[in-house]
Specification:
The protein is an alpha/beta fold and 257 residues long. The chain is built from seven helices and ten strands. The structure holds guanosine-5'-triphosphate (GTP) and magnesium ion.
């Protein structure tokens, strides 16, 4: 169930920034301040969509304050728990020609968003921020988080999405057409939604590129290292099983997943 407090808008913006937010009262104010300041400096039009997901803190109120001050900011409420559910709701409610998933901790400086937009990169349908691609730099990340990420990426490359060094970084750009085709296929509401959407994108022939970024580790993560990792591993196999059953296939193509 999604409720939206702004119905009518003029022409579609070039860019939509979608921020999934769960108990982000501490990190969201600074991120929204930097993002709205950045947007006002750009020549192109943009909107920001904050998707609150049953937060127990002031996340909703903080986002509403920004929406009251900045017409480009919208606040959605998504009742189904999980980053994946929130991102899907935001991406499908967005109206931008380019739709950018953006973690609320802004661990990628917003200025890097230019790398994902024409003219820097226009021969793609999906551009995913990468902390592993040549030229990427990670700052302050604890070794165990890095190790967790490498182990998960190995499983993902072996069983689901070959060829991508980092599918989990919280910054991804989708062309509107690709977003509107892929996100309705998404079944994972939690952290593995990235893998599922990329798996479906590969099956449907979309052009995906990894974009090296500067990434600053931000403490106080929402990820529970043990049980979320177990869920993510299990879901990679569910995604592959769904793929073999043709769940992500375009209707009419006789190929097998
Ligand atoms: N709406 C919603 N957002 C969520 C949920 N869980 C996490 N998020 C958001 O997902 C984003 C990533 O969460 P983080 O806690 O930064 O995750 P992380 O450990 O830093 O993960 P990486 O940055 O990829 O290493 C943040 O914007 C969170 O608010 C959820 O259940 N619902
Ligand atoms: Mg983060």
């Amino acid at each position: 169930m999604v409720s939206d407090n702004h119905q009518t808008r003029s022409e579609a913006p070039l860019l939509s920034i979608v921020i999934p937010a769960y108990n982000e009262a501490a990190r969201l104010p600074q991120s929204l301040k930097l993002i709205t300041e950045f947007i006002t400096r750009q020549a192109y039009s943009a909107e920001v969509i904050v998707v609150d997901n049953n937060s127990h803190d002031q996340t909703q109120a903080i986002a509403q304050e920004f929406a009251a001050e900045f017409p480009c900011v919208r606040v959605l409420f998504e009742g189904t728990q999980g980053k994946g559910a929130a991102v899907r709701a935001g991406i499908l409610a967005a109206r931008g020609q380019y739709r950018f998933i953006c973690d609320a901790d802004l661990s990628m400086p917003i200025e890097e968003i230019g790398k994902f937009l024409p003219p820097n990169l226009d021969q793609y349908d999906i551009a995913i921020a990468s902390r592993e691609a040549p030229g990427a730099v990670r700052y302050d990340e604890p070794w165990y988080r890095h190790l967790m990420g490498r182990v998960f990426n190995t499983i993902v490359r072996w069983f689901a999405v070959p060829g991508f060094q980092d599918t989990q970084c919280g910054f991804k750009m989708f062309r509107a057409e690709a977003a509107e085709d892929l996100f309705p296929l998404q079944t994972m509401n939690g952290w593995s939604f990235d893998v599922e959407v990329l798996y479906a994108a590969l099956q449907r022939g979309y052009r995906i590129v990894e974009v090296p970024i500067h990434w600053y580790y931000k403490a106080n993560t929402r990820i529970h290292p043990i049980h979320d990792s177990i869920d993510m591993f299990v879901e990679v196999f569910k995604i592959r099983r769904n793929g073999l059953r043709g769940l992500y296939r375009r209707t009419g193509d006789g190929l097998h997943g």
